[in-house]
């Protein structure tokens, strides 16, 4: 039994406390990964706040990147020394997984938010017993993570871990939604509501896809500046007349595609009003349970609009994360524009920066890059 430092949440909305915990070794089909960097994502915060009832005490974190240090028996695709990005948990056996859509695995809620492992199999524990430590199959707010082999995706060794970490969720969600779901044509238009990490990744993907009108909408002027750096052609400070402003930009036509990454229920109807005929809207931000969006369906019927709800960018992590890594290495996916790094010990400062919007994507440097 080894001892590792981990950031533990013990009460709803409570702080992250760095503690020393016991960690078991990898079981068959698992690997032990030394976490070099971990991104802070909205899902970590809503789990901390118990919007989704993750068992507490818990070690959260689901944007981990690091180095494989030990493999359990039966592991074939990975070896010690491999650099990896950690993806999300999925069963691999349900109809959705077998059809190539693990993001909508029938067991997504239990596997990712429920930390669905028997107590005896949880990787981390303290003197009082086991700690919930399989959040999204990884719980990467720790020096090490024990993960299933298929969650760890091998990536090139020459990319900084702090840029790789966000590929596991935020960048995968934003870019994947554009590439896999909205699939905009070259020369088309798109509006992105919410210029956080997911929204900025969507903007980067829209540039790669060849969109010529890319509109970013946010309440934070600094985030809109960063959205421009990521490729937005137009930016709008969120007001009551956003839909009219979008129609002005597009010559009264509306946008061909739109993405809502805000997690605010009242925003999605505005996105729908901003669409062109046969436009396509994607919802990726998660409003609190019970929040309702009021949509007038009648005007939509005659315009042929499409609505998609998307988890994890409809991506297959083992395929898409290496694609994102290649785009990152080539300079076409400028993730460095959105990343702010913090030492692991300053995790609560990083969380505050993420919540205030001063950091678009806060990333923890959990360990130093090895020589």
Brief summary of the model shown:
This protein is an alpha/beta fold. It is built from twelve helices and 18 strands.
Q: What does this 3D model show about the protein?
A:
This protein is of the alpha/beta class and 371 residues long. The chain has twelve helices and 18 strands. The protein has two domains: 181 residues, Medium-chain alcohol dehydrogenases, catalytic domain (Quinone Oxidoreductase, Chain A, domain 1, Alpha-Beta Complex); 138 residues, 3-Layer(aba) Sandwich (Rossmann fold), CATH 3.40.50.720. Strands 3, 5, 6, 9, 10, 17 and 18 form a seven-stranded mixed β-sheet that branches. It has a six-stranded parallel β-sheet with strand order 13-12-11-14-15-16, sandwiched between helices. The longest helix is centred in the C-terminal third of the chain and has 14 residues. InterPro entries: ADH-like_C, ADH-like_N, ADH_Zn_CS, ER, GroES-like_sf, NAD(P)-bd_dom_sf.
How many DSSP H or I helices? 12
What's the shape? globular
**Structural class category:** alpha/beta
Termini separation comes to 27 Å
Q: Give Rg in angstroms.
A: 20 Å
What is the total tally of β strands? 18
The residue ranges in which pLDDT falls below 50 over 5 or more consecutive positions are none
> What is the CATH architecture term of the largest domain?
Alpha-Beta Complex
Give a quick account of the main beta sheet: strands, pairing sense, barrel closure.
7 strands, mixed
Instruction: Give the SSE order as H and E letters.
Output: EEEHEEEHHEEEEHHEHEHEHEHEHEHEHE
CATH fold group of the largest domain: Quinone Oxidoreductase, Chain A, domain 1
- What's the CATH class label of the largest domain? Alpha Beta
Helix content: 25-40%
Residue fraction in strands: 25-35%
Average of pLDDT: 94
Domains, number = 2
Q: CATH superfamily assignment of the largest domain?
A: Medium-chain alcohol dehydrogenases, catalytic domain
């Amino acid at each position: 039994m080894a001892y590792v430092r981990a950031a533990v949440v013990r009460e709803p909305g409570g702080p992250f406390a760095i503690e020393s915990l016991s960690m078991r070794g990898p079981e068959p089909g698992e690997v032990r990964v030394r976490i070099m960097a971990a991104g802070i994502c909205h899902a970590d915060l809503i789990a901390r706040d118990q919007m989704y009832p993750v068992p507490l005490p818990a070690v959260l974190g689901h944007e981990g990147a690091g180095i494989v240090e030990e493999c359990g028996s039966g592991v074939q695709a990975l070896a010690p020394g491999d650099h990896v990005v950690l993806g999300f948990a999925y069963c691999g056996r349900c109809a959705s997984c077998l059809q190539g859509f693990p993001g909508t695995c029938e067991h997504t809620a239990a596997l990712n938010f429920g930390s669905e492992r028997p107590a005896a199999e949880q990787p981390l524990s303290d003197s009082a017993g086991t700690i919930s430590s399989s959040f999204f199959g990884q719980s990467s707010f720790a020096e090490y993570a024990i993960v299933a082999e298929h969650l760890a995706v091998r990536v090139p060794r020459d990319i900084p871990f702090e840029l790789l970490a966000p590929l596991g969720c935020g960048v995968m969600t934003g870019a994947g939604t554009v590439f896999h779901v909205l699939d905009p044509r070259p020369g088309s238009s798109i509006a992105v509501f919410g210029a956080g990490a997911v929204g900025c990744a969507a903007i980067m993907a829209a540039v790669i896809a060849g969109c010529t009108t890319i509109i970013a909408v946010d309440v934070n002027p600094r985030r809109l500046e960063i959205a421009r750096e990521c490729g937005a052609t137009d930016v709008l400070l969120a007001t009551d007349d956003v839909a009219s402003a979008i129609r002005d930009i597009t010559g009264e036509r509306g946008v061909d595609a739109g993405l809502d990454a805000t997690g605010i229920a009242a925003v999605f109807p505005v996105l729908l009003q901003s669409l062109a005929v046969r436009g396509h809207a994607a919802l990726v931000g998660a409003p609190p349970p019970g929040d309702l969006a009021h949509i007038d369906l009648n005007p939509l019927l005659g315009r042929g609009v499409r609505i998609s709800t998307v988890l994890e960018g409809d991506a297959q992590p083992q395929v898409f994360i290496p694609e994102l890594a290649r785009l990152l290495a080539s300079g076409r996916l400028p993730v460095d524009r959105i990343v702010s790094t913090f030492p692991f010990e300053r995790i609560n400062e990083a969380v505050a920066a993420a919540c205030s919007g001063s950091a678009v994507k806060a990333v923890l440097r959990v360990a130093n890059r090895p020589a």
